[in-house]
Amino acid sequence: MKFWRRYWYLIGGVLFVLLTFFMGLWGCGNLPRIQTILIFSWMAMLVHQTEEYAFPGGMPSITNMAAFREKEAPYKYPFHAQQCFICNVFLCYTFYILAICFPDVIWLGASQVLCVLVQLGAHALLINFSLKDIYNPGLGSTLFLQAPVAIYYIWYVVTRLPEKAGQLWFGIPGAFAAMIICFIAPVFLMKNRKNNYPFAEEEMYGYKKDKVLEIYHDSKPSILQKVGIK
Fold first, then answer.
1. What confidence tens digit (pLDDT) does each residue in 180-218 have?
2. What is the number of structural domains in the chain?
3. How much is the pLDDT for 218?
4. N or C: which end of the chain has fewer CB within 10 A?
5. CB 144 within 8 Å of CB 199
6. Is residue 224, in this structure, part of any structural domain at all?
7. What per-residue confidence (pLDDT) applies to 220?
C-alpha cells in the first residue's frame, strides 16, 4: 500500500498504456460506442492525473504553497499524500468505473464526462490566478482530452440516443456533486497538520518551482485564508 500511495499516478500512467492497447486491439471494435466513450474519458483522467503529479507535476506545492500558502506544514497540509491517494484512486476510479459499467445510465455517464466543467474552472481560472500564469499541471489534458471527449459524448447522446438526451442535464449537478465528494470534501475532512503523510520532496515540486516558492514567501494572506479556510 505504501508503494501504491507513493507512485499511484505513475501506476495510473501504466494503466493508461494498457487501456490504450486494450481499446485499440479489441475494445473499440467490440464494446458499445457509449461505453467506449466513457472508457476514453477515464483514460483522459489518467493522463490528467499524471500531468498534475508527474509530467510536469507540482500540484502538491501549487495547492499548499501557492493557493493556501500554508506556512507551518506545507508538505502535508491541508493537502497530504494519503488524502491525495484516496481521492484520486479509490474515489475517482470508483466513480469513473461505475459509469463505464452502467453505460445506459446516461445521467451517470454525463456526470463523469462533465467533470471537465469543474476542471476548467479550477485549472483555467483558480489555479492560474494563484500562479499568475496561463498554464498549470492538468490544464493541457483538460483542454485537449477531457473537453473533446465530453463534447463527443454529448453529441453522441443527442444524435444517437435522443430519447435519453434529457438526462444530460442531470449530469451538470452530478458532475459538481462528484467532484465535491471525490476531491473537495476530503481535503477539508481529512486535513490535519499532525498527519504522517507528507509528500516526498521529488513529488512536491514540478512546474515552476521557483515561482511557487516566490508566491509562498509572500507574506500576504491568500484569498482562501481571507475567507476563513485555514
1. 999 999 999 999 999 999 999 999 999 999 999 998 887
2. 1
3. 75
4. N
5. no
6. no
7. 57
Q: Is residue 226 part of a domain?
A: no
Domain of 40 in residue numbering reads as 1-194+203-219
Q: CA–CA separation, 146 vs 113, rounded Å?
A: 7
Asked if residue 108 is part of any domain, the answer here is yes
CA 120 from centre of chain:
10
Residue with cell 476542471: 119
What is the distance between the alpha carbons of residues 200 and 54, in angstroms, rounded to a whole number?
A: 12
DSSP 37-96: HHHHHHHHHHHHHHHHHTSS--HHHIIIIIIS--SS-TTTSSS-HHHHHIIIIIIHHHHH
187 assigned to some structural domain: yes
Judged against a pLDDT cut of 60, whether residue 172 lies above it is answered with yes
Amino acid, res. 161 = L
- Closest to 157 (Cα-Cα) out of 59, 68, 62, 32: 32
Q: How far apart are CA 101 and CA 73, in angstroms?
A: 40
